[in-house]
Specification:
Shape of chain A: globular
Radius of gyration of chain B: 18 Å
CATH class of the largest domain in chain A: Alpha Beta
Number of strands of chain B: 0
Order of helices and strands of chain A: EEEHEEHHHEHEEE
Mean pLDDT of chain A: 85
Distance between the termini of chain B: 40 Å
CATH class of one domain in chain B: Mainly Alpha
Oligomer: heterodimer
Number of helices of chain B: 11
Number of strands of chain A: 9
Helix content of chain A: 25-40%
Largest sheet of chain B: none
Low-confidence stretches of chain B: none
Number of domains of chain A: 2
Structural class of chain A: alpha/beta
Largest interface: A-B, 26 and 32 residues
Number of helices of chain A: 5
CATH superfamily of the largest domain in chain A: P-loop containing nucleotide triphosphate hydrolases
Structural class of chain B: mainly alpha
Order of helices and strands of chain B: HHHHHHHHHHH
CATH topology of one domain in chain B: ABC transporter involved in vitamin B12 uptake, BtuC
CATH superfamily of one domain in chain B: ABC transporter involved in vitamin B12 uptake, BtuC
Strand content of chain A: 25-35%
Largest sheet of chain A: 6 strands, mixed
CATH topology of the largest domain in chain A: Rossmann fold
CATH architecture of one domain in chain B: Orthogonal Bundle
């Protein structure tokens, strides 16, 4: 197995407040890893360091692939109330960008395939804002997977989902992990349910990272 | 009214600005930064007055000040990334303060009022070609950056991760906004520009079923409001800028009352 990314003795502080201290961690290709921790524990900071939007105070981060899809946290009720369809949302991650005018049959096919994979083909032209929380999450997964990445990173994917939507999400992720050999990293404060399908559960507490033993 | 050259020019200029201002407005509303239009239009008013006082073209003055203001907004936003709107509010306040101060030196009859509420029927041929040229350039850039602007609006962090040059795209968009506001200051007036950016979008949001439709409807409404407003102004002897904006308000109220989007 090849590593996807490595944290090598990484430390990070916000001003004088230390958040992560001396973190060593490697995720391998094909793994399903959950990065958990209480609010404010530093798991989101670790995600931002991995994505490159923050830089470590000490240590180095090696990312061995750029071939990854990212599903942002949805619970912030960000700008999704503006009219946008799943078709338009998913198309944002396709290259080359075609601007306003051009229609591309190849892009259409990829979007259709991605929507079919998450069982939302019939919602292609609905307004994103009218979908349920679980359906929105699946559209964002389709958006992350439309360019066929080998590695999926998700930030707090269960926020705002009811039990049924959570189970449906975990079923879908397990399917992608097992059938498509997709590597998955989930950052979450709530491991209930996802701990049953992940290969490893890591927990950040007081700046340190340790693996949670499975019962 | 078509027999008069000044009305033909007014209708043409109005149609171009009516199409372009809402394009900018769609992005401003989607990003939840509609105040940017207000900030730049007030700064451009200060530029207009400075131009009048210095004896240079007021639109050139407005353009210079708007671009400086746009650069300042981006600069302050980089220093205070967690307070994006702070930079806009600071520049808005500066624009109002500067315009207020400079207006004290203005003598009567220097055309100051025409920039406050617009003077579309006195647009010259040269000004008409400037408006058309800048409108075409802005439309081209908007079409080219369409997806990047949408991505940054709905998910700035995801856009950055997906390789969108967010700082560059934001900078270009702010410059586009500054340019279009400068040329529109002469026609619809600085106090009404923001309305013509936002009201067509508000109407489009009632009827559009996608982002693409929102853009198309916004521009269509913008052109329609401008042409109806100018026609009403001509036949009823009204101020064109006010007639255009109140037409837009009336249309929004009708859509709000009778058309319920899903």
């Amino acid at each position: 197995m090849n590593p996807l990314f490595t944290f090598d003795k990484v430390s990070f502080s916000y001003g004088n407040t230390s958040v992560l201290e001396n973190i060593d961690f490697t995720m391998q290709e094909g793994e399903f890893v959950v990065l958990s921790g209480a609010n404010g524990s530093g798991k989101s900071t670790m995600l931002r360091l991995l994505l490159g939007s923050l830089q470590p105070r000490e240590g180095t981060i090696h990312r061995y692939t750029e071939d990854f899809g990212y599903v942002p946290q949805m619970g912030q009720e960000r700008l999704y109330n503006f009219p946008i369809t799943p078709y338009e949302m998913i198309g944002l991650n396709l290259r080359p960008r075609h601007g306003f005018a051009k229609k591309d049959p190849e892009h259409d096919h990829k979007i259709d395939t991605a929507l079919t994979q998450v069982s939302l083909r019939e919602k292609k032209w609905d307004l994103f804002s009218t979908l349920s929380g679980g359906q929105k999450q699946r559209v964002l997964i389709a958006k992350a997977l439309v360019s066929n990445p080998s590695f999926l990173v998700m930030d707090e994917p269960t926020i705002g989902l009811d039990d049924r939507s959570r189970r449906s999400l975990f079923f879908l992720l397990r399917h992608f992990h097992r059938s498509h050999h997709l590597s998955i990293l989930i950052v979450t404060h709530d491991i209930e349910g996802v701990d049953e399908i992940a290969d490893r559960i890591m927990r950040i507490s007081e700046g340190a990272l340790r693996e949670v033993s499975r019962v | 009214m078509f027999e008069f050259a000044y009305m033909r020019r007014a209708l043409l200029v109005g149609a171009f600005l009516g199409a372009v201002l809402p394009m900018i407005g769609v992005v401003l509303v989607n990003r939840r930064t509609p105040v940017l239009g207000d900030a730049l239009s007030h700064v451009s008013l200060a530029g207009v007055i400075a131009g009048l006082l210095l004896g240079i073209n007021p639109i050139a003055g407005a353009m210079f000040m708007s671009v400086v203001a746009a650069l300042s907004i981006e600069g302050i936003r980089r220093r205070f990334p967690a307070f994006g709107e702070l930079s806009t509010a600071m520049v808005l306040s500066t624009g109002i303060g500067l315009a207020s101060l400079l207006s004290g030196f203005i003598k009567g009859g220097q055309g100051y009022d025409s920039f406050l509420f617009g003077s579309i029927v006195s647009v010259s041929n040269a000004e008409m070609f400037v408006v058309i040229g800048i409108s075409l350039v802005i439309t081209f850039v908007f079409v080219f950056l369409y997806q990047d602007l949408l991505y940054i609006s709905v998910d700035p962090e995801g856009a950055e991760i997906a390789g969108v040059k967010t700082s560059r795209v934001n900078f270009i968009f702010t410059l586009m906004t500054a340019f279009v506001i400068s040329v529109a200051s002469r026609t619809v007036g600085v106090l009404l520009i923001s309305s013509l950016m936002i009201l067509p979008v508000a109407c489009a949001l009632r009827v559009a079923k996608s982002y693409r439709q929102t853009v198309l409807w916004s521009s269509a409404f913008g052109v329609l409001f401008t042409l109806i407003g100018l026609t009403l102004a001509y036949y009823l002897g009204l101020k064109p800028g006010g007639a255009i904006v109140l037409t837009a308000v009336a249309c929004f109220l009708i859509l709000f009352a009778f058309y319920r989007s899903e």
